[in-house]
Amino acid sequence: MVSPSQGLAGKVAVVTGATRGIGKGVACALAERGATVYVTGRTVAAGQHSLPGTLAQTVAEVEARGGRGVAVPLDLTDDAQIAALFERVRRDEGRLDLLVNNAMAIPEAMTRRDGFWNKPLDQWQIWDTGLRAAFIAAWHAARIMVPQGSGLIAALSGYVGVTYTYDVVFGTTKTATDRMMRDMGHELRGTGVSALSLWQGFTYTERATENLKSVPGMAGQLASAAGSSPEFPGRVIAALAMDPHVAARSGGTFINAELAAEYGLTDKDGRTIPSLRESRGAPLWSAGATTWNEP
After folding, report:
1. Percent of the chain having pLDDT more than 90?
2. Residue 285 near residue 213 (C-beta atoms within 8 A)
3. Residue 117: what pLDDT?
């Protein structure tokens, strides 16, 4: 169990894609433990996006939940903006304890049931934001964390790492995310910094809720899946960030529902979220290898 006496007071986190969805849920869960959360995203003003949520609204909720929020507009396709974010964290906070790489572009065509050859090539933005930008953010984060000798880099992935979901670029991006965190954990060994990948099942985000209404066949496809709130993965990440033994998990891919069971966590409504390991697949990567020259 995670002790209520533990917390993230004095800890600094960066969460990408936190104007809505899982990113917002993670930011709020970290705030409940007292963290300072750099809330990043592209939606600054209401009406700028078809879905609800802005940076200011997330920051307001973070602060209402007991944390400190810092809004940072961020376009993950702009390397200079990513660099400026981490320089600001270094300058203003002097430390960084947690990076949550959550953001990923979700183009309209991603959920369309069609062959990859019939989808526009700009589908590659899924990779550019979900993997390339995540690597760049982790690169900057590690340059703060490694000298301080502590920190956690967590990436959101899913069963799509081994099971076809939505489309080719989406699956490729998430599978590569798991491998990237595996190898980051390998190279971070002995530094005090950990890196891992987290599998999240269906989540009732604003976009997912709309997709259930508008994407043909999605509701039927997910009828047997037990969805969670956007805060559920945040509760797991908060527990990992507070776990003094998190280094033992570095380099691995983990199912959030299974970690929640280990830490004694439920969703915000008290529900226990089941693992879908048996029906959707198991992670390929366990915690880090024992030798540098692992085959």
Report:
1. 76
2. no
3. 95
Q: How many CB atoms lie within 10 A of CB 263?
A: 16
pTM equals 0.90
DSSP string, 56-72: HHHHHHHHHTTSEEEEE
31 pLDDT above the threshold of 70: yes
Q: Are strands 98-101 and 151-157 parallel, antiparallel or unpaired?
A: parallel
| Diameter of the chain measured on Cα atoms | 54
Given pLDDT bands bounded at 50, 70 and 90, which one contains residue 1?
very low
Please give the tally of structural domains in the chain. Answer: 1
For 48, residues 6+ apart whose C-beta sits below 8 A from its C-beta are: 42, 54
Show the domain range for 119. 12-280
Residue 147 is assigned to a structural domain of this protein = yes
Q: Which amino acid belongs to residue 24?
A: K
Question: Is there a domain that residue 153 lies in?
Answer: yes
CA-CA distance, 57 to 290, in Å (whole number)?
45
Look at residue 291 and tell me if it is in a domain: no
Distance CA 209, CA 63 (A): 26
Has residue 3 been placed in a domain? no
